[in-house]
Amino acid sequence: MSLLSAEGLHLSYGDLKVLDGVSLAVDPGEIVTLVGPNGSGKSSLVKALTGVVTPDRGRVFRKPGLRLGYVPQKLALDPSLPITVSRFLNLPRRRDPKRVEKVMEDTGIAGLGDRQLAALSGGQTQRALLARALLGEPELLILDEPTTGLDQPGEAAFYRQIETLREEMGLAIFMVSHDLHVVMAASDRVICLNHHVCCEGTPHVVRDAPEYRALFGEGTRGALALYQHHHDHDHDHAHGHDDKEAHHG
Q1: CATH code (residue 240)
Q2: Cβ(126)–Cβ(158) below 8 Å
Q3: Which residue range forms the structural domain that includes residue 87?
Q4: Residues 155 and 103 in one domain
């Protein structure tokens, strides 16, 4: 049974049609990435999936009792607000200190508990948001362009972190991204959106699809291949090269 699915979603803001018959599903344990040009309806789709907006037509199904974690694009926080990382992670209620410590370690922000949230780097802030989402022990994690503002090594490190979490915790991940060159290698399945689903499949299939090339041009291919190679190399020791290829179909 899918954790989350959408069937025939239509959404308009006034005369502007944003989603036109969008259907998709996220199954347990898989990493699904949503890509699409600016203004293609990606954020609106996330809002529909998380229940922030109600589609004009179509339905969203969630597994009963689904524990959902959400990491926004960025933290809308007044920089003058004094709040430490520890306090942020314990909102809206106090968590088990051992659990907080473990999650901080898992997300690469161990030792930053007393640091002011406003003093963190972009990458550290995203990791703090990720840590807070993980404290709810989600079955499905939704990430809305989580690496906006990070440089390429920062993006790559963040996505490797996400893959590790999936392997260790067995959670499913649905992420929105514009970082095509980095993100596609980390995905089991890619959905390409331009108000409707243009194409979907494994990264290799989508990369070669005419609809994808029409939206993103031929130029992305070299960068994608470069990261794919580097990414597989990183996993050689842990998983064996063949496993990784097999996993992606």
Answers
A1: 3.40.50.300
A2: yes
A3: 76-137
A4: no
Same domain, 241 and 154: yes
Q: How far is CA 129 from CA 34, 83, 117, 146, 215, in A?
A: 20, 14, 10, 9, 31
Do 131 and 239 share a domain, yes or no? no
Mean pLDDT of all residues in 180-208: 85
Pairwise CA distance, residues 8 & 23, whole Å: 5
Peptide bond into 55 cis (omega under 30): no
Which domain-ending residue is among 87, 112, 137? 137
Rounded CA-CA distance 124/112 in Å is 9
pLDDT tens digits, residue range 112-136?
A: 999 999 899 888 998 999 999 999 9
Mean pLDDT to the nearest integer, 176-182: 74
Contact assessment for residue 51 and residue 60, using Cβ atoms and an 8 Å cutoff: yes
pTM for this entry:
0.81
